[in-house]
């Protein structure tokens, strides 16, 4: 390789991950990571029963081994790490409650935690190793998303494309790849990166397919690299790499921005409403205005949400939603739920998003308008601005600079845990008691010697599956305890 | 959906596939398809022992079931259709002898035959069903490649991106999806489409990863569609679809060009030299000129190959090749093999591409120059033009309008079979006798009642594996005979 290899942004990113040591990570960042893991686990459990998830799980049952070391979270059955990562990543993104990083417009949790947990279970990693790997995935994925820029997100679903790279970095860190190995892993992941927004207009199921593929492909790439499979050295910034093919405003300086001093992990936002993040700033602004003015939904004649172009691109495809999932991408529906029912959480969507006349009436009053200031601040800040005209002719305005769940307006621990329990119970995947036991284990993951095991006391686990699982001995694939199965060959 | 749905190009393509009946296909096209299958099987067997293939196969062993209905061709072990398709697609592209369609710059065989065979084995399809499905895959994939145009191929490896769509169409046809189901399958395949050329400069292993992923992803997409998973309706031509994200000269009229009258399958070229197809026209022209003039390699002072831009894009990354695979993308090496050894076949590459002083000397005499006429004809025609300056000062020129293996200069059946036997024997994956038995079965696949089974009399088969395979009973995944395993749920 040429002498300047080590100075390439991708190489510097890989060196950072290879050198990352748990002791270097500020405790506040570790705490955020644990909160993000709890928030994610809730989302993964909430995916139980979602049609898209069940179909992907059916494929995993047909094509993958009937037992293995890794947990399929919604059903608690076990299979190989590859299929566990695939199904869990689909499940985690089904109810649109998983986290988001503003500046990169990237949902890290759904593509990073599933492959890391699946491999950690298979290879008996510690809690600290798992946390370090996940933080590595966040730091890489967020920077790659920022690097690819707004033009990428116009056509590509960043969580699908960048997700494969983030998952490869995280799993690569977990299995101990050095900088060169990580570079090969990123090369193999980046050349698998895919995910187009076209599905939105049809209410198709691709969003969960994207996260499933990203998580599984990233795991695949990292395992291949461990076995000597070579990837492109400059898959991100090279002349025929991701930016060349899928962006026209890429900024390579973002790939290494503040490595080791800036912790992008802690910039990640928790989603409070159960909808596309692009609806949240306006939802919060509307909620504030209606509360402060004492308005009911029938007091409102029209609502204009002043938004960034990305919101129009993603939400503009939906007119009258046909499915609950599509309703989460309908600005008018989200604002209607807030106006009529005061909340836009999972239950509100299930019960009121499609057939509620009041919500439908409010939806018809809402339109989006591009706002130069909001657009200029985006994606670094997601500002909410709404204008209401009341039926009695008043013009009212409100603004929210940090939607609820953003780092400057984050969830209290109690809110975070309550949200996670609601998610866990939503599809019957876990009881509140089970979820509390899982959360307790996660809060302790950074204790020395803590195993990377979320479910040992939460039903399922090593014993018989809690419900409906068909488990079979699988020849040489049976796992008698942790640490006996190594991924890849050998 | 809007009323004009059925007129969308993607919808018309899907309707064509859904309606395609074996009886409609001209016998000469069926004959070509059988020849392409023989040619492909040789390539799949020749992948045995290739490092990239062994690593991917190691992943399949670790993550997939240890038994199943589908054959992993290089080793003749059995696993689930998903992993058989994945490994076989990697294997088929390892030695760069698989077919190519000029106009689309797409290698159909390596991404279409593996998933179709894997599913045909699992679901007891007939030879006619398999041939029809493969032809459907060729007709779709070639048109999608043509549609995406030259700008796509500048950055994207069309066989990786389009391959997923072609595989989905082929498997979707095989498992009996209707037009709507095929549209969903294409939507899920297109949103997984990936593969960047960046790997070429590093001699990385991504080319086989691309074919592995395309075949497996296409199979995945078709199986998902059968179970009701929805894909974008206009993934090819839609505003946020493949062309929007990955091309700037897409031509939607190409998607439906001559459907039912033009058979793109029969336009496919067989590769004669074991190198990147972009080297073939110049190799043939050089060979013709040196023979007609009675030149030896030391008589030649310089060679200029007059090429299209695509050749410079793909081959320009390689200066002095470091691996045999990279040597196949080195114009100078290919021409050196032709000049010094008279052939650029698999053995010549293995023995002479890297360490032969005469080949290296000839390589240093070769340069590429963009030629306006050649570039204008490309990709419809791949014209070879070379200029030689001899050491005694003569200026000589030669031109080849159809490189050997093109439809107008195709292989005789004897040449085709001899090439396939050489490929089968190359890595010890099959004996000449086994390969002849396989070829005999393929030539008879269109006989009524012929099963889609290539290996029954060719070693391996249902009995114990021929060498080194570890086979275990796999709980409920053991397959006692054909037709007992259905893909997907159910």
From TrEMBL, chains A, B:
What InterPro entries does its record include?
MmgE/PrpD_sf, MmgE/PrpD_sf_1, MmgE/PrpD_sf_2, MmgE_PrpD, MmgE_PrpD_C, MmgE_PrpD_N
* Domain MmgE/PrpD N-terminal positions: 12-253
- Which parts of the sequence belong to the MmgE/PrpD C-terminal domain? 273-443
Q: Where is the composition biased (Basic and acidic residues)?
A: 469-490
- Provide an example Pfam family for this protein: MmgE_PrpD_C
Q: Region Disordered: which residues?
A: 451-490
Identify the PANTHER family for this entry. Answer: 2-METHYLCITRATE DEHYDRATASE (PTHR16943:SF8), 2-METHYLCITRATE DEHYDRATASE-RELATED (PTHR16943)
Q: Which family does it belong to?
A: Belongs to the PrpD family.
Q: What is this protein called?
A: 2-methylcitrate dehydratase PrpD
Q: Which organism is it from?
A: Labrys wisconsinensis
């Amino acid at each position: 390789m040429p002498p300047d290899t080590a100075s390439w942004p991708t190489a510097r990113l890989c060196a950072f991950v290879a050198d990352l040591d748990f002791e270097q990570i500020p405790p506040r960042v570790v705490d955020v990571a644990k909160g993000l893991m709890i928030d994610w686990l809730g989302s993964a459990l909430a995916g139980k029963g979602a049609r898209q998830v069940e179909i992907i799980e059916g494929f995993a049952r047909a094509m993958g081994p009937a037992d293995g070391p890794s947990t399929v979270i919604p059903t608690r059955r076990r299979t190989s790490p590859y299929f566990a990562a695939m199904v869990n990543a689909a499940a985690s993104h089904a109810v649109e409650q998983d986290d988001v990083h503003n500046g990169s417009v990237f949902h890290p949790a759904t593509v990073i935690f599933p492959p890391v947990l699946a491999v950690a279970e298979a290879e008996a990693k510690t809690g600290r190793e798992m946390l370090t790997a996940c933080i590595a995935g966040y730091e890489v994925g967020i920077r790659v998303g920022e690097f690819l820029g707004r033009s990428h997100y116009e056509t590509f679903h960043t969580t699908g494309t960048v997700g494969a790279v983030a998952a490869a970095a995280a799993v690569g860190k977990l299995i101990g790849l050095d900088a060169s190995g990580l570079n090969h892993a990123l090369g193999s992941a980046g050349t698998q990166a895919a995910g187009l927004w076209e599905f939105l207009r049809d209410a198709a199921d691709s969003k969960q397919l994207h996260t499933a593929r990203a998580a599984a492909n990233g795991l695949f790439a990292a395992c291949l690299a461990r076995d000597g499979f070579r990837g492109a050295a400059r898959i991100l910034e090279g002349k025929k790499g991701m930016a060349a093919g899928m962006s026209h405003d890429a900024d390579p300086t973002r790939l290494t921005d503040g490595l080791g001093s800036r912790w992008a992990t802690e910039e990640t936002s928790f989603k409070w409403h159960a909808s596309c993040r692009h609806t949240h700033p306006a939802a919060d602004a509307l909620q504030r205005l209606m509360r402060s003015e004492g308005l009911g939904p029938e007091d409102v004649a029209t609502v204009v949400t002043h938004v960034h172009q990305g919101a129009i691109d993603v939400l503009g495809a939906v007119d009258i939603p046909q499915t609950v999932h599509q309703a989460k991408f309908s600005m008018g529906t989200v604002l209607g739920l807030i106006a009529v029912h005061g909340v836009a959480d999972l239950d509100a969507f299930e019960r009121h998003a499609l057939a509620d006349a009041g919500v439908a009436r409010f939806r018809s009053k809402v339109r989006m308008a591009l706002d130069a200031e909001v657009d200029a601040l985006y994606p670094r800040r997601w500002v909410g601005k709404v204008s209401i005209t009341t039926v009695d002719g008043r013009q009212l305005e409100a603004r929210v600079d940090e939607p609820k769940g953003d780092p400057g307006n984050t969830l209290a621990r109690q809110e975070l845990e309550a949200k996670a329990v609601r998610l866990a119970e939503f599809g019957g995947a876990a009881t509140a008691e089970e979820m509390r036991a899982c959360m307790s284990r996660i809060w302790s993951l950074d204790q020395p010697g803590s195993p990377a095991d979320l479910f040992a006391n939460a039903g399922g686990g090593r014993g018989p599956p809690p419900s409906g699982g068909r488990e079979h001995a699988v020849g040489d694939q049976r796992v008698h305890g942790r640490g006996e199965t190594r991924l890849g060959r050998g």
